[in-house]
């Protein structure tokens, strides 16, 4: 049985790019974030996507985090029940007045009649993936200041390697 990766609250904040005070405030507004206690791993990859969506809505569009309270459970469920490749090809549609959220393909996103917010997930997932695989290139190894010396049985026999 495969155990999914889990992230600590600190890892979640770093990957999504929100400060600790913002995270504390969001925990009060978004119920699914309240399960994170201390430094233990407790957030799934889908939670990263859901929090990244919230960050985009708050910072790019100006939605108050409290306005997402009604859709938070659905948002986190959608992001956790769908694999990242499927989410990447979809758009998240939020009807904040009705408290509804759903995934939609390109052609489905305009079928709802009320005011909605449509969030393409491709860019959000690409940014998260880049954060997760970002590895600093190791520095080039300096040359040794002395030549290699034979060790063990070769050193005792006086033979060259």
Description:
The chain has helices at 9-16, 20-29, 45-61, 72-81, 84-88, 122-133, 153-157, and strands at residues 91-95, 100-104, 117-120. It is mainly α and 161 residues long. It is elongated, with a radius of gyration of 24 Å. The mean pLDDT is 84.
Question: How are the secondary structure elements laid out?
Answer:
Layout: H1 9-16, H2 20-29, H3 45-61, H4 72-81, H5 84-88, E1 91-95, E2 100-104, E3 117-120, H6 122-133, H7 153-157
Antiparallel strand pairs: 1-2, 1-3
Outline of this structure?
With 161 residues, the protein is mostly helical. It is built from 7 helices and 3 strands.
Mean of residue pLDDT values? 84
Structural class: mainly alpha
Low-confidence spans: pLDDT under 50, at least 5 residues? none
Instruction: State the order of secondary-structure elements, H for helix, E for strand.
Output: HHHHHEEEHH
Helical residues, percent = 40-55%
- Taking all Cα atoms into account, the compactness measure Rg is 24 Å
Largest sheet properties: 3 strands, antiparallel
Distance between the termini: 48 Å
Dominant shape? elongated
Total domain count: 1
Strand neighbour order, sheet with most strands: 2-1-3
- Count of alpha and pi helical runs: 7
């Amino acid at each position: 049985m495969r155990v999914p990766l889990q992230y600590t609250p600190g890892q979640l904040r770093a990957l999504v790019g929100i400060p600790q005070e913002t995270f504390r405030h969001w925990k009060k507004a978004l119920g699914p974030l309240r399960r994170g206690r201390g430094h233990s791993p407790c957030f799934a990859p889908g939670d990263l996507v859901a929090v990244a969506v919230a960050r985009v809505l708050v910072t790019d569009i100006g939605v108050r985090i409290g306005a997402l309270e009604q859709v938070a459970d659905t948002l986190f469920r959608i992001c956790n029940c769908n694999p990242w490749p499927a989410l990447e090809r979809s758009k998240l549609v939020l009807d904040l007045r009705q408290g509804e959220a759903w995934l939609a393909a390109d052609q489905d996103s305009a079928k709802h009649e009320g005011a909605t917010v449509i969030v393409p997930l491709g860019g959000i997932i690409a940014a998260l993936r880049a954060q997760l695989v970002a590895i600093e290139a190791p520095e080039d190894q300096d040359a040794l200041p002395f030549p290699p010396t034979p060790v063990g049985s070769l050193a005792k026999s006086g033979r060259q390697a």
